[in-house]
Design a protein that fits this description.
Helix content is 43%, strand content 0%. The chain contains 5 helices and no strands. It is mainly alpha-helical and 154 residues long. It is elongated, with a radius of gyration of 20 Å. The chain has a domain at 62-150: Orthogonal Bundle (Cytochrome Bc1 Complex, Chain D, domain 2). Helix 2 crosses helix 5 (134-150) and helix 4 (105-114) crosses helix 5.
């Protein structure tokens, strides 16, 4: 068989594999995925509304329970209840963008200490968060990671 024949065959196999892969994907949003609303849609979520649905774990570890309290005191005003984000305010932390392989625990420490320049989302810059100890941030990270795992984000 000629090289051209092999090339055409490879392209056909790749095309069939792609079609099969697309057909097997589940419909609807996956846990921790953000579906951006159509701006022209009347069902656009209001400013400040949660961005993602968060499934809560059955039980939080003691460290995550402390982290939940610290998160509610210092983070929820922007990142929403249970880190679901707030439309037009701040992104959800229960999202694949913040999975451990993309944003390590240290990224959370650095964000609290230094703030964050907007780079993934159109929400603007995050200022540093004052009044949190390293132990507070570690507990917040434990809380966020347990929420992420409960939503299929590892």
């Amino acid at each position: 068989m000629s090289r051209l024949g092999w090339l055409i065959g490879a392209v056909l196999v790749a095309g069939v594999a792609t079609i099969a892969w697309q057909a097997m994907r589940p419909n609807g949003p996956q846990p921790g995925t953000m579906v951006r609303p159509d701006p022209a849609s009347p069902s656009d979520p209001p400013q400040g509304a949660p961005i993602v649905r968060v499934t809560l774990p059955e039980r939080l570890s003691p460290e995550a329970q402390m982290g939940k309290r610290a998160f509610e005191a210092k983070c929820a005003a922007c990142h929403g209840a249970n880190a679901a984000g707030r439309n037009g305010v701040a992104p959800p932390l229960v999202h694949r963008t913040y999975e451990p392989g993309h944003h390590s625990d240290m990224a959370f420490f650095m964000a609290v200490q230094n703030g964050v320049r907007a780079h993934h989302w159109p929400f603007g810059n995050m200022p540093p968060v004052w009044g949190l100890t390293r132990a507070d941030v570690q507990a917040i990270v434990a809380y966020v990671r347990e929420l992420q795992r409960a939503n299929g984000i590892d």
